[in-house]
UniProtKB/TrEMBL annotation:
Name this protein carries in UniProt: Migration and invasion enhancer 1
Organism expressing this protein natively: Parnassius apollo
Pfam families, alphabetized: Rdx
Subunit details: Interacts with GPX1.
Compartments, record wording: Cell membrane; Cytoplasm, Cytosol
GO CC field: cytosol; plasma membrane
Function: Increases cell migration by inducing filopodia formation at the leading edge of migrating cells. Plays a role in regulation of apoptosis, possibly through control of CASP3. May be involved in a redox-related process.
Length: 98
């Protein structure tokens, strides 16, 4: 296992994404014990994930939250010596217009 896996999640406080950040942080810490996860309030609409200072997911670009399982797997891969890779999976957008 590599030492010091650093995950930073910038989330939109106005959008109430703090709970999403904590849920993802807990999932990462459960699978990768040497990962430190920092959740910080940021730009409106954001849910940006940096892994060892490399952007691996941007809600500002995709307009959707990431697939948490894929994020956890990428962090675990990096912990085992892999390179950070961009997250492709997204959570379904459940937006209804009436």
């Amino acid at each position: 296992m590599k030492d010091d896996i650093k995950v930073q999640i910038e989330y939109c406080g106005a959008c109430d994404y703090g709970g999403h950040c904590l849920a993802l942080a807990n999932a990462i810490k459960k699978s990768t014990t040497n990962a430190s996860v920092i959740c910080k309030k940021g730009r409106k609409g954001s849910f940006e994930i940096l892994l060892n200072d490399k952007l691996i997911y941007s809600k500002l670009q995709t307009m959707a939250l990431p697939d948490y399982e894929e994020v956890v797997n990428v962090v675990l891969d990096v912990s085992n010596g892999g390179e950070p890779r961009v997250i492709k999976g997204q959570q379904p957008i459940n937006c209804a217009i009436s």
